[in-house]
Amino acid sequence: MVVQTKNERSKHVVHLSAECYPVAKVGGLGDVVGALPRYLQRAGFRVWVVMPWYNKPFVREHDFEVTYTGHFRQGSRQLEVQIHKERRNLLGFELYLIKIPGLIDRDEPYGYADESEQFMAFQHGFLHWITDAGIKPDVVHCHDHHTGLIPFLMYHSERFSALREVPTVGTVHNGQYQGWMEWNKAILLPPFDTWKWGLLDWDGVINPLGALIKCCTAYTTVSEGYLNELMIQANGLERLFEMERAKGVGIVNGIDPSVWDPEHDPMLEHRYGAGDVQYGKERNKVSLCERFGLDTAKPLLAYIGRFAGEKGADILPQIIENIMGGGDVGLNMMILGSGDTQMEEEITHLAEKYPEKVAVHIGYQEELSHRIYAAADFLIMPSRVEPCGLNQLYSMRYGTIPIVRATGGLKDTVLDMDEPQGYGILFPEASADDAVQAVYRALELYAQRRRMEQLREQLMALDFSWDKSAAKYIEIYQNIIA
Fold this sequence. Notes:
By secondary structure, the protein is of the alpha/beta class. It folds into 2 domains: about 10-255 and about 465-480, Rossmann fold; about 275-465, Rossmann fold (3-Layer(aba) Sandwich), CATH 3.40.50. The protein is built from 16 helices and 17 strands. The strands form 3 sheets. It has a 9-stranded mixed β-sheet, with helices on both faces. It has a 6-stranded parallel β-sheet with strand order 14-13-12-15-16-17, sandwiched between helices. Helix 1 (about 30-40) packs across helix 16 and helix 9 (about 315-325) packs across helix 14. It comes from Parapedobacter composti.
């Protein structure tokens, strides 16, 4: 990894995000922002993570101090902004929470009717704080549309002119969500150079993700494959990503081996390393299958994730029916997830229809997810859109063979087992037929005991830690600072 020399001042990088594990996590965004900054800090940077305040266990159970209080106007409302700093730097970097009573003081990150005002206040509150306090970072790094207005306001609002020379990085974790707002919301923004209104606009609405890509100094996507796919599938922003391709870089997310390590994972009943992966996975499978009433002697196929169309969860019921409805194919399936209520009902119905073959847990439990990765023989990801994907990386870390649709980051990180040095199973289309054929390939593999053992050991030897990815972010920082 690239590191800073002892003689130079530690460069100050601020990450802005709606999520950060373990404070608040809904998906992969939380995992990335909980890990990448720690690796940057180890490389010699001074790293802050700034996120909204949520009424979450981490916040309630740890020691925070209020380091700043101020006021700003958002439209006709006078808002108070409080900055809460975690005192002990428990996460390996400095953590700051922005609390704005009435907007940024809630239980969950998303799902509120005034979400536009919520994240606008978060961004405005951040800029108001650092300019008022005379803080001038070396880089401001914005994650997804929730922070997409930051570069525009830094560069085109006189109120924040002190930040005009600070370079910015934007990371697109999921380009399908863009934070669209009608133009009547513009009155809520801090005063800005109205000649620059086009930087906010895309197809007649304010588009924060579009503004982020237009205004940031450089942007990244969470895999090289996804960088290319955004030019052909970006929910209306395809032309913009093509125009701004020169300042884009694809960097595959890493995983934190201190969290995802079957040899030391405190959430597992039975820990194991590469040397005893066969025995360790078998013991974990027995424990999980007995808990959910599945046959411990059969191979176990898992799905972990949101029930959403982009994840291909809508074809899960057909996959299950096609496999389980044809008689005893010698397979169990374990599903952990939540989301679309119709998908939840359909999948729950099939678990009731095939109680000894299919188990479902609606919702998300971090501990259960770790236990499923350790117990499963295969993990299926039939995604239509997968910018990077972390589940396949977690599964491989635990010796679980991924069955994935060849898209985005899945295609970048999983090499089909029929290729030289291959270790996973890919299928071309997000269709039930293609997915079922891939599962049958997995069952044929499972019958080849020696090859299964070799692939498991090969998977556990792969390095998807943050070291390589963090070095690429550091290179971007150094280039734009210079």
